[in-house]
Amino acid sequence: MNAHSGEILPAPARVQQRRALGPGTPNRYGHLLGPGLLLLYWAVLSETGWLDPRTLPAPWTAVITGVELLREGRLQTNLAVSASRAAAGLLVGGSAGVLLAFISGLSLLGGYVIDGLVQLKRGIPILALIPFMVLWFGIGEPMKVGVIAVAAFFPIYIQTHSALRAIDLRYVELAETLGLSRAQFLRRIIIPGALPGFLLGLRFGATAAWLALVVVEQLNATSGIGYMVTLARNYAQTDVMLVGLVVYALLGFSTDAVIRWAERRLLSWRRTLAR
Description:
The protein has helices at residues 33-47, 59-72, 74-106, 108-122, 126-137, 141-165, 169-178, 182-216, 225-234, 238-266.
């Protein structure tokens, strides 16, 4: 009611608060929640006796055994060998994937030739190729690095190629209107457009490289984490086998974390749900 005129005023419009539909502000250490819960469940089940230590040792057993292996020098030596193999394979496979994705994505003839062959190979499991890789490269380091490179190649090629082909045609027309040179077109349109796909492919490729490493290090290897696990299996040393699995898991997790960090820095201009 108006205090001066005595007229009845309409009720003020109810202010509607905007509902937040996104996932919220991410926490820097949020990705550690899942592994932390897994470790907690594992420790509780081991301590209460629900887990038989003969089939799966307790987490503290893995820590104690890992410290002993470090003192003996076995863990860091094998870890260095495995990391160098995975890095070499990822470098070779990633370089080939990016190069062929650009040739295939920016050229019709390249797309006809390369993309069809890549799609044919995708149907062949990597394990089926190993006997031929042994025939071609022997059982030494070239075969191991080659298998890892093939495993890492496909995710990087496919994601980079898809990102290239998904670049909005309006940007291409704008570049043509502005008269950009080929180098400027690549630097300002193509590379920024392909970068999200490449980084996503790199995450998948790094994971594939670690998975392939597990396989090749059990094929007549004399060093590496896989060799250490195979040797421990022969002597029924479940604690050493567990250390190997934990090391593989930590390597995969840390590699993905590094690529995620690089992704946030390189793609800081994007505003997405992940922010």
